[in-house]
Amino acid sequence: MLVYLRVFKESFSFALNALRNNKLRTFLSLLGVTVGIFSIIAVLAAVDSLDRNIKENLSGLDKNTMYLTKYSFGPTDVPRWKRDNFPQTEYDDYEFVRRNVPDIEESAYVIFGGRETIRYQAETLTNIEITPISHGIYTIDNLKIEKGRFYSELESDTGSAVIVLGYELAENLFDKSNPIGKVVRVYGRKLTVIGVLEKYGSGLGDSPDVKGFVPANFVRQFRNGGVEGLPGAVVIKPKEGVDIGAFESVLKQKYRAYRGLKADEDDNFFVNKLSGLVSFVDAIIGTLNLVGWVISGFSLLVGGFGIANIMFVSVKERTNLIGIQKSLGAKNRFILFQFLFEAIILAIVGGLIGLLFVWSSAMIMNKVVGDDFEFVLSFWNMFIGFALSSGIGLLSGIIPAISASKLDPVEAIRTGM
């Protein structure tokens, strides 16, 4: 055992000396591995961070929440021309669903109204997402109020001219003054601010912090519905413990009957579940991971070829020294370990530098982006980086090391002279 330890120690020392004596070559080899490891770990960490942030944003929502509308939130086999001819989901559909479909805990009607300009005195904010939606969304999305209140069911049904602002939107409009009771102009009409939401931070799509919520029936007073009007959806939250499959079947059956669809006719609507959205997101994240591995793998492959090339050059340059060492009694394993350690040291150090760059980049991004997005470098990703760099060093150095260890001492001395 002591003999092997001594061989390891001396081989390691020879490898370090060789790297120190060829600083430029060592630097170029390190650079190739560093870029490869940086590319792979940066992509993995970015995709993991994206996945984590999306899952956190969806964690507060009930995955069984359904959106009944003419649009599909994910891939569908229904052709585009057919979907375009589906009737809009209107307020009357919402009224039918909430009165006739059993086991609904809460429902709401939303109008996909787009972006508007909001004004308060001299302050004007453009391209703001104003969501016309009925009172039920307060329960469905578990909204939390910082100041004031959310509009009531009566205000929602009668279309009162009131608005609830997101935290950041309220700050931008009113600075530090109390917004409750203030009158703003949206859609060219006056609305009274009755509430401000708590701060949520970044979200999937626009955060609630930069949104405004108004009763859907307020917008219906001056914006047309129907085929040529604003698109809408019925948002449905089933009761807890309900069999979701059975609930969806009953919902579709009753809604088909309401729309007068015959047994042989296809649905002219979609029931989109948030659980399906989560699965769709998982599929996208998996694809991004695969693409990231493929692209970054080429960078790592170049780094590995660089080390292998350097090691073959190193064997060629030190052929004479190898012959002298073997003539003085050096065993094959001593020569093998000497070159193998050199390749592994290059790969590990390059990998560690790559990890350091990823970590530094993550810290900088978190400082710049702030609360909008958290870039996370997990222990698992760091372990992958370390394992990959070690593996690349082993694979890149094994063939040059074996060729060096098998050199005939007499031929090696003669060739090197």
TrEMBL record:
Residues 26-253 form the MacB-like periplasmic core domain. Keywords: Cell membrane, Membrane, Transmembrane, Transmembrane helix. It comes from the Bacteria. It is found in: Cell membrane. Residues 294-409 form the ABC3 transporter permease C-terminal domain. The keyword Transmembrane helix applies. Its main location: membrane. The chain crosses the membrane at residues 27-47, 290-313, 334-359, 379-399. The keyword Transmembrane helix applies. It holds the Pfam family MacB_PCD. It is a multi-pass membrane protein. Belongs to the ABC-4 integral membrane protein family. This is ABC transporter permease. The lineage of its organism: Bacteria, Pseudomonadati, Bacteroidota, Flavobacteriia, Flavobacteriales.
